[in-house]
Amino acid sequence: MIDLHCHILPGIDDGAKNWDESLKMARLAVSEGITHILATPHHMNRSWINPKQVVESLTSELQDRLDTEDIPLTVFPGQEVRLHGEIIKNINNNEISFIDETNKYLLIEFPTAEVPAYADRLFYEMQTNQITPIIVHPERNHAILKDPNILYEFANRGIMSQVTAASYLGKFGKEIEKLSFQLIEHNLAHFIASDAHNTTNRLFYMREAMQKLEKDI
Ligand code: FE
C-alpha cells in the first residue's frame, strides 16, 4: 500500500516533532501494510516554508534512519503546497516538489474556509504547463462541504482529488464523513491517503479505510 500524503518529516510543520516520532510513525505505517510513503510537509502555509531542497535532504536522512532501524518502508519526497498566486513562478525556481518523478502531479491545499476565486485561473495555467493539480482533502473545505458541485466542476476539467482516510472513517465528524462517502461514490475521489501527522490523534487509518471501502463499494 502506498500513502501519498503524510507529515512524517520531523520538526518542519505540524507533523512529527522529532526523529523519534518520525520512526514511530514509520513503524505504525508498516503495521498497517504501507510499503511506500510520500513525505509531504506543508509548504507556503502560515509559517511553514519547506522548499524542495529541504524536503529532499530530510527524506533522504529519514530513509537512512529507516534502513538502519530495519524498518521496511520506502520514502519519497513530496510537498503539500498551499494554493498561492506564485506557484508557477516557484515551480520555475525549483522550490516545488511534485509527487512523481516526471513533475506532473502536485498536491494542492485550499484554505479551510473557501475556494479562492483565482484557483480556476491558476489551475488552468498549471494544466497548460502539463501539471495536474490534486486537491487534498476537499471534503474538509467549507465551501465544498456546502456545495460539492465545485469539486465536480474541477474534476470535469481533469483536476484530481485526494480524500483523507480519517475523514471517510468519521474522525472529523459526520458531515465530513458523509461527503467523503459521496465523493468516493461519485468517482470524485481519485486517491485515498492518510494525511497522518503523528502517533496520537492524526493517525494513518489506511487499513481501516481500505476495509470500509471494500464493504461500501
Ligand atoms: Fe496534510
Key terms:
217 residues, alpha/beta, six-stranded parallel sheet, three-stranded parallel sheet, 9 strands, binds fe (iii) ion
Provide structural commentary.
- It is a single chain.
- By secondary structure, the protein is of the alpha/beta class.
- It is built from 9 helices and 9 strands.
- A 6-stranded parallel β-sheet has the order 3-5-6-7-8-9.
- The model has no long low-confidence stretch (mean pLDDT 97).
- The site of fe (iii) ion (FE) has 4 residues, from loops.
- Residues 5, 7, 80, 195 line the site of fe (iii) ion (FE).
Structure at a glance:
With 217 residues, this protein is of the alpha/beta class. Helices cover 40% and strands 17% of the residues. Residues 5, 7, 80, 195 line the site of fe (iii) ion.
What is the multimeric organization of the chains shown?
A: single chain
Largest sheet properties: 6 strands, parallel
Low-pLDDT parts are none
C-alpha geometry: globular
Indicate the radius of gyration in whole angstroms. 16 Å
Percentage of residues in strands? 15-25%
Order of helices and strands: EHEEHEEHEHEHHEHHEH
Please outline the helices and strands.
Blueprint: E1 2-6, H1 19-31, E2 36-39, E3 42-43, H2 52-68, E4 74-77, E5 80-82, H3 87-92, E6 105-109, H4 119-128, E7 132-136, H5 142-146, H6 149-156, E8 160-164, H7 165-168, H8 174-185, E9 191-193, H9 206-216
Parallel strand pairs: 1-2, 2-4, 3-5, 5-6, 6-7, 7-8, 8-9
The site of fe (iii) ion has 4 residues, from loops.
